[in-house]
Each structure stands twice: as C-alpha cells, then as structure tokens.
Amino acid sequence: MQKKNSKGLLIYGAAVVILLCFMFFSQNAFRSAERVSNAEFQNAAESGEIVKAEIVQSTAVPTGKIRFTVNGGSVKEVTVSDVVKTEEYLSDKNVPFLVSEVPTSGIFENVLLPVLLSVVLFMLLMSFMTRSSGGGSNAKMMDFGKSRARKASESDKKVTFADVAGLKEEKEDLESVVDFLKNPGKYTKVGARIPKGMLLVGPPGTGKTLLAKAVAGEAGVEFFSISGSDFVEMFVGVGASRVRDLFQTAKQNAPCIVFIDEIDAVARRRGTGMGGGHDEREQTLNQLLVEMDGFGVNEGIIVMAATNRVDILDPAILRPGRFDRKVMVGRPDVQGREEILRVHAKDKPLGDDVDLKQIAQTTAGFTGAELENLMNEAAIHAAKEERSFIRQQDIKEAFIMVGIGTEKKSRVVSEKEKRITAYHETGHAILFHVLPDMEPVYTISIIPTGPGAAGYTMPQPENDSMFNTRGKMLQHITVCLGGRVAEELVFDDITTGASQDIKQATATARAMVTKYGMSEKLGLVAYGDDSDEVFIGRDWGHTKNYSEQVSAAIDEEVQSIISECHQRARDLILEHRYVLEECTRQLLEKEKLNRQEFEAIFQQEAEAGTES
Ligand code: ADP
Ligand code: MG
Ligand code: ZN
Hints:
The protein has helices at 2-31, 38-46, 83-92, 105-134, 168-182, 184-189, 208-219, 228-231, 238-252, 279-294, 334-345, 356-361, 368-384, 392-403, 415-434, 470-490, 499-514, 548-575, 577-590, 595-611, and strands at 34-35, 50-57, 64-70, 75-80, 97-100, 150-151, 197-201, 222-227, 256-261, 301-307, 325-328, 441-445, 456-459, 592-594. It is of the alpha/beta class. The strands form three sheets. A six-stranded mixed β-sheet has the order 6-8-9-10-7-11, with helices on both faces. A hairpin with a 4-residue loop joins strand 3 (64-70) and strand 4 (75-80). The N and C termini lie far apart (77 Å). It binds adenosine-5'-diphosphate (ADP), magnesium ion and zinc ion.
C-alpha cells in the first residue's frame, strides 16, 4: 500500500513540475531583462550609456516595451506609453534601435498555453475518474479511492476496558466479541454465528470510539477506523472504492476490528432525498452492504459502527449478518460520572479538598467527553494560578467555563427539578408495573438527555403484537398520564414537563374514537380520511368528512376517555404511595434504576403490607 501511494504521488508531482516549467519559461522569454523605471531609461539615454535598443510594440497601441543594452552589457526593459514618440526620442539621442514585430511569443502565451493547460488538467481529472469508478483500473494516478482508514499504530497507547469508566453493561455486551476475537475456534467448533457487525448507539462523547478501541485492545487485534464522512466525496464512485479498499485491507489483517464512525453519513435511509437522489451515498452504502455480506462469518473481521441516530439508518444495514447487534451507550449516571472523573484525574495531582463524588452529583447529563473537558479546564485553571495541584474551586470554575456558552447550561438541573423529574418518572413506572398489558419497566432514569428531556422510563422492548386492544390502549393512556398525576399528588404546582405525555395520550384517545370505532357513543365509524401512511402534510391534507356536531362529540368523547384514565392513574399511584416515595428517593440518589432494583421496591411494599 505504501509503495503504490508514493508512485502515484510521484507521477502527480512530475505533472505539476512540468506545468510549472511551462509557465516559467513562457514568462521568461519576456522577462530575462531587468525592469527599470522610465526615469532610469531616460537617464541612461541622456548619458549615452545605451548601446542598442529594441522596440517591441504591443498589440495595444501606442504603448510598448523598449529593451535596451547598456554599456556594461546588461539588458534592461522599460514600458513606454507611446512607441512612436520613443522612436523619435531615441533617434534624437543617436541610439541605434530596431523595431520588432508584434511578439510571436504572445501566441504561445495567449493561445497555446491555456489550451495545453486545460488538456493536461483534463487528462489528470479523467484519470481520477476512471481510477475511482473502475476500481481495479491500473491508472492509479493518486490514492484517491484508497480508504483513509487509519490503523492504530503500535506506538498508540493500547486502550483496554480499564480505560473505559462506567459503561458496565456495555462492556459486558462486548465481552463476547473480545472472546471471539481471542479464540475463534471455540465458537466455530459449535457452529456459532458470531455477529459481523455491532452498532454503538449514543450521543456524541459518551465513549463509543473509546469502547471500540478497547475491544481491539483487549483482544489484541488491529484496529482500523474511518469516519462515514470520509466516504462521502464529491466524485461519484470514490466512496464505494474506499469501502472496497477498506475491507481488502481488513481481510489482509484479520483478525481485526473495522470501526466506522458516524455511519449515518453513509447509511441514511435510501430514497428519501428530497429533489433528486444521492447517487454517491447510495453507491457507497450498497458497496458497504456487499462487502459485509461478502466475508465469511468467521473470518475474524468485526465491523463496529457508531451513530447517534439509529432512526435515520437504512433498515437494510440492520439486517441479520450486518449490524444486527446494537449496544446502547448512554450518558453516565452519578456513579459512572464519578468513575470517569477518576480516570481523567489519574495523572492530575488533586488537592485534599477535591470531592469528585460531589462533582459527579452536580454534573447530571454530562457525557464522558464533557467530564474529560471539565477536568482539563480545571487543570488549566490551576496552572494559570501557578499551582501544581487542582483544588475543588478550580473544578467549580471550570464547570462555569464549560457550562456557559453552550447549550449544556440548560442541562445543569437544580435539585428541585431533579425531584420533580424523579416523581414524574416514578409515576410512569408504577403504572407500567401494575397495569397488566404493559411491559415491565426496564430502566428509569432522571439523567437529562437533552433540552426538554429531563428523564425517561423505558419499558422492556415490546414483543410485536399485531393488534392493539381497547384495554391496552386505555392502559397506554393511563401510563402516559402517570407522570403528571405523580406531580399533582406531591407538588401544589404542576410543570410543563408533561406536554409530550399529554400529546401522546390525546393522540391515542382520538385514534380510538375516530379510527378504530372504540367509542360506543360514536359507533363503528371512521372519521376523517385515514392518511396516516402519508408522512408529509398529514394534518394539511386532512379533509373532514363529518359535521361540526360530530366534531364536538369526538372532542367530548376524547376528553371523557382521558379523564377516566386520569382518575385511574391517580387511584393506582395513591395505592402505591410507598413505591412513589421510595423509588423517588433512590432515583435522586442513583439517577438510574434497573428492573430488579425497581421491582425490589414493590417487594418491600408488599412485605411491609403483610406485616402490618
Ligand atoms: P464518542 O465516540 O461516543 O463520541 P469518544 O469515545 O470519542 O466518544 O469519547 C471522547 C473522549 O471522552 C474520550 O477520548 C475520553 O477521554 C472521554 N470519555 C468518554 N467516555 C468515557 C468513559 N466511559 N470513560 C473514560 N473516558 C471517557
Ligand atoms: Mg467518536
Ligand atoms: Zn412523562
């Protein structure tokens, strides 16, 4: 690879040199003489120094150039405004001169050179094109179609799981990949199919790249990384050629890890481009799919890719045999943050008063990268004050620095907001748990995930059921309202935080009435045309096929469904007041609870109930 590279460069360099020579010489035909001012020319003429002169009239009469040789033998040149007058002047001074024709070299300069230049450029361009789309073509002028995959060099410090703080579950998920890379035989013997591709999904800075590197480090295999945006070039076919090249290199270096950062840049859903397709990207994506299907399952290549948007990825990329495993990499919880802070404080001397636990508590929503930045800013602050260690105050100052000027500031949540969020999410969680048709709670979190998203309660991924029943839809509405209900029960005031929930509840209730004929009052009639499938301009093209009275009846029915569910949510949460309080307390402490931890609280409640 290195050889070919330098050869391509050589040819390219030679072309450039030749071009430059052309330009230089063409200019030089004119410019071998020293340019002098008019005054100097006249001086020379007056003092009789000029031996001979040549008048070159330019095409733009009456100006021209006088080229004259002085006593010493040096040739000088001056531009004059009127050639005829100069002729008279020179004969006056008895200087021998001759008048040249309009220079022939002008033809070269004005006509030939541009033509030559464009021919050479065109040829260069053509060779790029054929090289990149032809792939195997021999005209490798430059390594344009070469993948830019960077191989982590030996000198790079090896990253291992020990360098990745927090992310315990994520590391466990990747443990199997490490094991496979270490002893592939163990798996092939029993005919196990090892995933070829793993998708790391999470917001920027949460440690996806770090994790991928750590997998390579743990397994002791090569790590090739490339960014999705490197594939997207202005020349059609370059991306595809780079993909081909990347996998070729990987195959030669197996076992290894190929890491594609920002895969969404290439693997966006196809055919949704407004106004014309993105041929280049599609070609690249197709090539990627071809390559991933092309190598055997046990060739020892594992492709890892990172993105923060799974929703925009082309479904084809998620099919079995491709990126069929997903690892969600989330923002760290308090404990994770503390561990990350510790990792990045390792080579920084800390003062006695530094309390990383406390820092972890005040940085809810920060990613690993942000925490790293925070510690770095703190160190800079300490250095500015000529101190050789970091004090708590440095970190606090850094916190303000890092927070201000970015949208992160809005994510710095107050204690009160945290409390509200904790109650809100617990409200949802309790209802998920107690309502029979709802999935069990998988995670509850009050880690802010972005502006307007204070926390979340995630049910166990749903097993696809084909039908929604009336009962299930009512329960869904009830769960949606749970957050608001919990807020109502605990605080005098209510917040705007539940708007999304209310919207969802309303949409479900409305669909029950107008779409599924689930309201007795309005009967088995679909109101409004069903334009759900058209995703643009849905509300736009919505034509009403019913009267104002019906419209009012629908609203009334929707409202009655909602208030019925609201009452139910209230009753259920009140029944589990203990869980509400205890779960909130634990959330405030840990920020994140998993299924076991959450269900243990219900257990406690049940036990306490039987005792009394
Ligand atoms: P991503 O690829 O998800 O955008 P990176 O892996 O590039 O994030 O992380 C950027 C930097 O943030 C890392 O180099 C590391 O210094 C720091 N970092 C992120 N997550 C962690 C973590 N879990 N433990 C230690 N450092 C982390
Ligand atoms: Mg990254
Ligand atoms: Zn909610």
